[in-house]
Write a structure and sequence with these properties.
mainly alpha, two-stranded antiparallel ribbon, 2% strand, transmembrane helix, ND/Mrp_TM, membrane, transmembrane, NADH_UbQ_OxRdtase
């Protein structure tokens, strides 16, 4: 199989599995696990191909741009497809124990559609197909958030739906303005043209606003905490780890490619938004009394670090680009593991109130360990991937003379330590309930594997940075 033929397979394989999952009355669990594992194998093959080639491209149907659909992968695409591919089988393993019957069938179908859209977004070569994949990703995530929930989950999903549709419309209006000015939507053909185009600044503002809303970046995060708090653990993990990262990936591509990192004011604005998100949402996480809300606000705070890295890329180059990638990968793994572990604790206790968490270390030792390991990465402690990412981010801020960002990064790390230790304290404190609900061990192993992987990324920093290559 040629390297270029892997690209359409990475989209078609999970999409076909998703449609089968929704249509077949039985076998959802094995289908979910099998398709997710196959997707991981394709991701590994892509990384192996890119290690030698650097970039891979494919024109669907053999038609060149603008008639054909261009698919392209580089180091960043491959890293993100690989980490999403690694998370998917573990979420599938957890979901096969957490769901049954119709719920498992719907989760399998929707999650595989979600995974196919995510892969498609990472390799789409034009702005319209980026919109299509972004929309499919958002709609499948909304449906997942409503899965198996009551009135509160439905209300949160409707709020999420409103946010994703509004963000998509803003993005699409920006795309329309670019097409009107250039007659093309291909990213290579648009490279560097954005700032000089008529209406280019307005198009960029619309697309940035839409993407930041879909990413739930502060202060546009109103939809995310309720969606997380009322969704089931594997859904919360998928939303926090994967769904909100895709718009930021697209924002990075747009700014560095189409707009060539133009307008220093944009960098300053993104840095200010990111810094405010880190501080405010970390403080909100500290104040929460429900574990899932604590982890949800932590997600918004950690997204702030990604904005800081993105803002520094035009001035700091490789250090900020590496920080963005390592922070993103580490957060994907740590937050997926943390949501699954907290979900295990809540399932055993019957609720997710911190003050009511029973002493679970005796009965759920792997989940307790997962919380501790995920916390190490989120706090940015060595030897985790979070530490490597924040170290590169500090280097980028120092190199550009942005000392106020250095202070934000350090204070944010201290606040992260406060809310992580608050969660750990309640995990290991209180009285035991021997009659509490027992959990299948695979639900614990899935959480622990993800959290441990976030720490393990700290030992793979150099190989990941080599795969990335230079700043695109």
């Amino acid at each position: 199989m040629s390297a270029s033929s892997l690209l359409p397979l990475l989209v078609l394989w999970p999409l076909a599995g998703g449609l089968l999952g929704l249509l077949l009355p039985r076998g959802a669990g094995p289908l979910l696990l099998g398709v997710s594992t196959g997707n991981l194998a394709l991701a590994v093959a892509l990384v192996d191909a890119l290690a030698g080639a650097g970039k891979v491209a494919h024109s669907v149907g053999g038609w060149s741009t603008p008639l054909g659909i261009a698919l392209r992968a580089d180091g960043l695409s491959a890293v993100l497809i690989l980490v999403a591919g690694a998370v998917a089988p573990l979420l599938a393993l957890y979901a096969s124990a957490a769901y049954a019957g119709r719920e498992l069938r719907y989760f399998a179908g929707l999650f595989l559609l979600f995974l196919g859209a995510l892969n498609g977004l990472f390799i789409a070569g034009d702005l319209f197909n980026l919109y299509v994949t972004l929309e499919l990703l958002g709609l499948s995530a909304v449906a997942l958030a409503a899965l198996g929930g009551g009135a509160a989950a439905l209300a949160a999903s409707l709020r999420y739906l409103l946010a994703t549709i509004t963000g998509s419309l803003a993005y699409l209006l920006g795309v329309a303005l670019l097409y009107r000015a250039t007659g093309t939507l291909d990213l290579l053909q648009l490279s560097g043209q954005g700032p000089a185009l008529p209406g280019g600044a307005v198009a960029f503002a619309l697309m940035v606003a839409g993407l930041l809303l879909k990413a739930a970046v502060f202060p546009l995060h109103f939809w995310l905490p309720p969606a997380h708090a009322n969704a089931s653990p594997p859904v919360s993990a998928a939303l926090s780890a994967l769904a909100v990262k895709a718009p930021l990936y697209l924002l990075l591509r747009l700014w560095l490619s189409t707009y060539d990192g133009a307008w220093p004011l944009v960098a300053e604005l993104l840095a200010a938004i990111g810094a405010a998100g880190v501080l405010w949402c970390s403080l909100q996480a500290v104040l929460q009394r429900r574990a899932k809300l604590l982890v949800a606000y932590s997600t918004v705070a950690q997204l702030g670090y990604l904005l800081l890295a993105l803002a520094l890329v035009p001035a700091a180059g490789a250090a900020a680009y590496g920080a963005f990638t390592l922070l993103l990968v580490s957060h994907v793994l740590a937050k997926a593991g943390l949501f699954l572990a907290v979900g295990n604790l809540a399932r055993r206790a019957g609720h997710d109130r911190l003050d009511g968490f029973e002493r679970v270390v005796q009965h759920l030792p792997l989940s307790a360990s997962a919380i501790a390991l995920a916390g190490v990465s989120l706090m940015g402690m060595p030897p985790s991937g979070g530490f490597n990412g924040k170290w590169l981010l500090l280097q980028a801020a120092i190199a550009t003379g942005d000392w106020w960002l250095v202070a934000v990064i350090l204070v944010g790390g201290l606040l992260a330590a406060v809310y992580i230790f608050k969660l750990i304290e309640h995990t290991f404190g209180g009285s035991d309930r021997p009659d509490a609900t027992a959990l299948p061990r695979r639900m614990e192993w899935a959480a622990l594997t993800l959290a441990a992987s976030a720490v393990g990324v700290g030992f793979l920093g150099q190989p990941l940075l080599r795969l990335l290559g230079g700043v695109p």
